[in-house]
Design a protein that fits this description.
InterPro entries: Multihaem_cyt_sf (IPR036280), NapB (IPR005591). The protein is mainly α. It is built from five helices and no strands. It has two domains: 48 residues; 115 residues, Flavocytochrome C3, Chain A, domain 2, CATH 1.10.1130. The longest helix is centred in the N-terminal third of the chain and has 25 residues. The protein is globular, with a radius of gyration of 25 Å. Bound molecules: heme C (HEC) (2 copies). The site of one heme C has 24 residues, from helix 2 and helix 5.
């Protein structure tokens, strides 16, 4: 008696697995549909949807919260005239260096950017006053954009410290877990 009950469960289980596999198979996209531009993949003319970047000058934009704990914050102001960043020409430093940031109302760059030298041992840190690996700010900090997500984002960040939603805590935590 016991055995046949087990068999019933096993076969119900098996058909459920079969049904969910069949369901998943239905959602497979064709190769042509894989692009992000809502156009067949091999169409060359279709452009991605327009993206609206902030036009507000520094100090007037609305900041997005951090995408996750210690994510690089996005740039809430216009970067017109500030990029490209070249050797000897980095306008970002002019407002975000910790010694000037407060007076212009900008967020001082994180101490991880000038107190650590994780990537470029022996680089010209003293001359730049920052880790050379941080010089090209827009490599990691992208301007905020008014853009509809092309794919729904179901990721939900968790912040161990509520303050980390608006501020980096990495400099105090980066050694966590290291001997
Ligand atoms: C004229 C001064 C100025 C310049 C130049 C400038 N910023 Fe800013 N930045 C600000 C101010 C002020 C804020 C505060 C937020 C705002 O815009 O309301 C800010 C905010 C930011 C933030 C968000 C910080 C946070 O706490 O979320 C980032 C990232 C940033 N800027 C990056 C840059 C980068 C990269 C450049 C160079 C391409 C740059 N900024 C150039 C003044 C400046
Ligand atoms: C290699 C990637 C990278 C580069 C390059 C980089 N940043 Fe960051 N930045 C980050 C990350 C990641 C964080 C958040 C974690 C941390 O503190 O390091 C951050 C944090 C910041 C913050 C917020 C600090 C806070 O207290 O919340 C500011 C402002 C900032 N960066 C400005 C700059 C500027 C200006 C430059 C160029 C001179 C720059 N960053 C270059 C990755 C980068």
């Amino acid at each position: 008696m016991k055995l046949s009950k087990g068999l019933v469960f096993a076969s119900v289980g098996a058909s459920l697995v079969f049904l969910s596999v069949a369901q998943a198979v239905k959602e497979v996209l064709s190769e042509e549909e894989l692009g992000y531009r809502n156009a067949p993949l091999y169409t060359e003319e279709a452009a991605p949807p327009e993206v609206q970047y902030p036009t507000e000058p520094p100090g007037t934009g609305k900041k997005f919260s951090r995408a996750y704990e210690n994510a690089p914050p996005q740039i809430p102001h216009s970067v017109e005239g500030l990029v490209p960043i070249k050797p000897g020409q980095n306008a970002c430093l002019g407002c975000h260096m910790p010694d000037v940031a407060k007076s212009v109302g900008a967020t001082p760059m994180s101490p991880t950017h000038y107190k650590l030298d994780l990537f470029t041992k022996g680089g010209k840190k003293d001359e730049l006053k920052i880790d050379p690996a941080r010089y090209q700010c827009v490599m990691c900090h992208a301007p905020q954009a008014n853009a509809k997500p092309l794919v729904k984002n179901v990721f939900k960040p968790e912040f161990r410290d509520p303050q980390a939603k608006e501020r980096s805590t990495l400099f105090n935590r980066w050694k966590e877990g290291l001997p």
